[in-house]
Design brief:
Elements: H1 7-22, H2 29-43, H3 48-51
Length: about 70
Amino acid sequence: MAQDLSEKELLKMEVEQLKKEVKNTRVPISKSGKDIKDYVEAQAGNDPLLKGVPEDKNPFREKGSCMIS
């Protein structure tokens, strides 16, 4: 799609995107970083990557063993 547009049209699209982005509220990293850290620490108990998945609820566990006789 981008190949079909002229340079002028591409620049116009970029300007429109920048106009949208400039309206976003900015938050200092000193505040947002702390908020993200607090959220991650609060959710750590529910994170299966940190605490694991119980065997009875693990959809990827092996259903049975294979025996060759």
